[in-house]
Amino acid sequence: MTGRRKSVHGEWSSRLAFILAATGSAVGLGNVWRFPYLTGESGGGAFVLIYLLCVAVIGVPVMMAEIMLGRRGRQSPVNTMRTLAQEEGRSPSWQYLGWMGMLAGFMILAYYSVVAGWTLAYVFRAGAGVFDSATADGVASIFSGFVSDPERLLAWHTIFMVMTTIVVSRGVKSGLEQAVTFLMPALFVLLVALVGYAMNTGEFNQALHYLFHPDFSKLTAKVVLDAMGQAFFSLSLGMGAIMIYGSYLSHTASIARTSIIVAGMDTLVALLAGLAIFPLVFAYHLQPQGGPGLIFKILPIAFGQMPYGAAFGAAFFVLLVFAAWTSSISLLEPIVTWLVENRGMNRVKASTLSGIGAWLLGIGALLSLNAWSNHKLLGKTFFGILEYLTADLMLPLGGLLIATFAVWRMSEESSRSELGLGSWSYALWRFLLRYITPIAIGLVFLNVTGLLTLFVH
Ligand code: TRP
Q: In the chain, how many domains are there?
């Protein structure tokens, strides 16, 4: 037993502060940009169902494990894993879990910042009334004109990366609480208003059917993998972001309740985004398979038609930028904390260096939308490869390793005392992580790599 380690980086002021920070990390472009676009590409209901199942059965228990490891280790993910492995008498190689997480965060931040840059640009486009009474075709061609211009994309990507780096260099706690306390609820309210608008003007019933009536003929290995990857991506799991936020959590807070609240709010926001967008997709007879540009091609049509749409649209994109901002800082935080702990850098230098690295990788991502769009590997652009490697492979693998460590490598005594659950809920948590998580993730991976067919034949 370790006794209780104090956090070297300070503690959240309260459990609420942690919930706000973790929700800030979870709710972001993943909910409003990625969830609708993947749903559209995957054909709707079957994807949504698998996603919801993954959130409940894998996401929540893995989130509990990740917070638990973070709170017990109290350092950057690499050092947390090294310390805990040592305490439990396990191999020091567990620290590579932290390394993979830092790499995943870095790679995600690269393309995340590019899309956050689109959002920033759209604040001004919407505010200037560019979309007023625009047709669906007009809005789509504004988007394609925009992404085919690398210099503009670069300018916005740079601005967003600087914003992220500045917050991380000052320490993630300052400002985060206020941002999440006021701006998240505001985003929520605007999303609800958009759903109301979509109910009145769009094909709401068709969208409900599309989202919640699974058509299992659409269920391919890729759809299942995407749904699982999206559950990890949206909940910020599997790369140490939640682990590091957990490292600031006080010992009195209930990890289980906290995880359920964060996952619940995150899922609600994603579903609202879906309910706001798909009624409009069907009303304008557009293709749900709009790709990564889907929301940028759909929502502006609504902003162009509703009263005060320019102001509403600008406000919506501002709030989405804030949501992306409170997420992107959690992607950079594990690397920065590690550089501070192990390389003796100050936060400013550590944030600047890692921000520049992610910015450079992001340039590759944004060029793959225009100048390099014909360079493909396995049918994917560089942007697509980054997304696939991180969300579909590295995050679920990270989650699997976190689960494995928490329930197979850590003593029952340690996890029991850290979680403080009743005996039934503890048993359920342990059962899910011991058997269900590895089997589910393992099957999805095997199926996708085609290995399963080897066994069947
Ligand atoms: N969850 C965030 C979103 O939905 C993105 C994000 C932040 C993330 N931190 C992460 C994704 C860590 C994976 C891992 O926008």
A: 1
